Amino acid sequence: MTFTYQQAASVADAAKAAAGFDAKLLAGGQSLLAAMKLGLAAPDSLIDLSGLAELKGIKLDGGRLSIGAMSTHAAVAASAVVQQAIPALADLAGRIGDRQVRNRGTLGGSLANNDPAACYPAAVLALNATIHTDRRSIAADDFFKGMFETALAEGEIISSVSFPVPDKAGWQKFKQPASRFSIVGVFVARTGPSARVAVTGAGAGVFRATALEAALTASWSQAATMGVTISADGLNSDLHGSPEYRAALIPVLAGRAVAGS
Fold first, then answer.
1. What are phi and psi of 243, to 5 degrees?
2. How far apart, in Å, are the Cα atoms of 156 and each of 17, 31, 64, 183?
3. What is the pLDDT of residues 215-242, one digit of tens each?
4. Where in the chain is the domain with CATH 3.30.465.10?
5. Counting C-beta atoms within 10 Å of the first and last residue's C-beta, which end of the chain has fewer, N or C?
6. How far is C-alpha 248 from the geometric centre of its chain's CA atoms?
7. In what order do the strands lie in the sheet with 23-26?
């Protein structure tokens, strides 16, 4: 495999380099490099974003937590700002993969890749976050389009993600022990009277569990989740679990997430 490598000097530089030919933006490389090794991706060029300080940083501003796209999972997990504002998000980041993955993988890379079993999409969707790019801002409800698909245009670069700080939030996942991806993962969040619940690992992509949202809006309690039945239609089936198994896990994990919020 032959390709060129370029370390971007700025976001504008990266966007220019990504235009006009088969190029891939390189964030942490935890998914892309593995895909290239397996022959599943063969870009003509790699544009490395790792040196761009403008894509890093974590801050709390006006009730919103802003995290740069190139912030690593380890940085999010260790951030005192994240731990204070949204402890469940720090907890989620601290349980992604292993130490190597957490020290290389990035928030923006995870979202752009949109693996159907990735953890961050559940937090972004449940927290009603906004994904900011070099071109526009995209609401979480509009960003995730399906398996490995997002609303990003070709060459569009995620710059940061802003999270409204919820009143309560919690995260639970039942992990595949080797990859540590979610067989099922559930993130719950309550802001004011309203609850949002997002599920990863169970289907072709992250999705909101509206029945659980209704139950938790009525009563933010573990008990409220126990009476909710999730349909198995369209859920994943593999050696790790049937659709019915995943459907049964969703309200159980949602309840545990609420109890820990």
1. -55, -40
2. 11, 18, 23, 30
3. 999 999 999 999 999 999 999 999 889 9
4. 4-164
5. N
6. 22
7. 4-7, 45-48, 23-26
More confident residue, 1 or 19: 19
Name the average pLDDT for the chain. 92
Question: What are the structure tokens assigned to 10, written together?
Answer: 């700025």
**CATH 3.30.390.50 domain extents, the chain:** 168-259
Tens-digit pLDDT profile for residues 53-70: 899 999 998 889 999 999
CATH of 4-164, one of 3.30.465.10, 3.40.50.300, 3.20.20.70, 3.30.530.20: 3.30.465.10
Please report the sign of the dihedral spanned by the C-alpha atoms of residue 93, residue 94, residue 100, residue 103.
positive
Kindly state the average pLDDT of the residues 136-155.
Answer: 94
Distance of CA 151 to the CA centre of its chain: 14
What residue has token string 């099922």?
184
Q: Which of 194, 191, 168 has its CA nearest to residue 261?
A: 168
Distance from chain centroid for Cα 246: 19
According to CATH, the superfamily of the domain at 168-259 is CO dehydrogenase flavoprotein, C-terminal domain (3.30.390.50)
